[in-house]
Amino acid sequence: MTLEERLPKGAWVFLAPMAGVTDAPFRDLVGSFRATAMVSEMISSEALVRLNRRTYRRLVSKKENSLKIIQLVGSNPKSMAESAIINEDLGADVVDINMGCPARKVTLNNSGAALMKNEDLAVKIAESVVKSVKIPVTLKMRLGWDSTNINCLSLAKKFEDAGISMLAIHCRTRAQMYSGKADWSVIRELRNIVKIPYLCNGDIKSPEDGVRALEESCARGIMIGRAALGKPWLPNQIIQFLNEKKIIPHPSIDQQFQIIMAHFQAVLDFYGESHGIRLFRKHFAWYSSGLVGSSSFREVISRAEDLSFIKSHVEEFYKKQIQKFY
After folding, report:
1. According to the model, what pLDDT value does residue 326 have?
2. Catalytic site residue 218?
3. Is the confidence at residue 184, as pLDDT, over 80?
4. Which of 101, 152, 171, 200 is catalytic?
5. Would you say domain 253-325 falls under CATH 3.40.50.620?
6. Would you identify the CATH topology of the domain 3-244?
7. DSSP labels, 68-98
């Protein structure tokens, strides 16, 4: 069965891989709202081959009820292949190759988006990973390194020939990082170049954005990244709008409080109390963004270390929000 046959009919909405964000607890949460699939945060192939325990924590979650997609980053074809095998053995359904990360610490190692400057190595990595496993291999990239090097279209065909099952394209160049506006129309021509499905990523923040992104890119689906921070229900809202024309409202403030505390507890259970508290501070900031008094709330939470104090402070903050709405 091909990857496309394993995915549902209708438009697809994937959760994008985000370093330090799309860990197992967050993927479980987004999956509980219904998303087509969630991709793990990128995992260093070199660290995985060296049996780095912290790296193992990012792997397949037993709770995930959709396709288990693990993203690998690296520049060594052999290590990428070996780490793909490890993930397949651990239960991954799909391995995704990162050729889109713009972070300097990644590109300096000739990984991530830097591979778009070395097409021969990029294709060799794709071929090596595909040949090493029996599960589907997908790949995420950008439009190109900069405005003078837009090569996603030509690379897409090479990746298809190498055996890649699906592509996801962040519609910015590496030089843009996350600034400017994503240009979805650039990848429209892919429909005439490759037969494998491709996803459109970048600046998709609402159901209406999802409609426009599909129209301009002619993609099979979309991938949601930063817009889902603090809104794990967003992929489901977009799915419902794209496929059934349903407008799903945000959860009520009371429901959001329940979601946040369940997510917080899942992170504490997964990482332990001390590490979990530090990791979740950014989530508290994302969840509370735009609410009355959120600035002072974030300031207090960013320094708090005591679990009981944090829980009571969060509860008090959301009780005030609820009182304002009702």
Report:
1. 61
2. no
3. yes
4. 101
5. no
6. TIM Barrel (3.20.20)
7. EEEEEE-S-HHHHHHHHHHHHHTT-SEEEEE
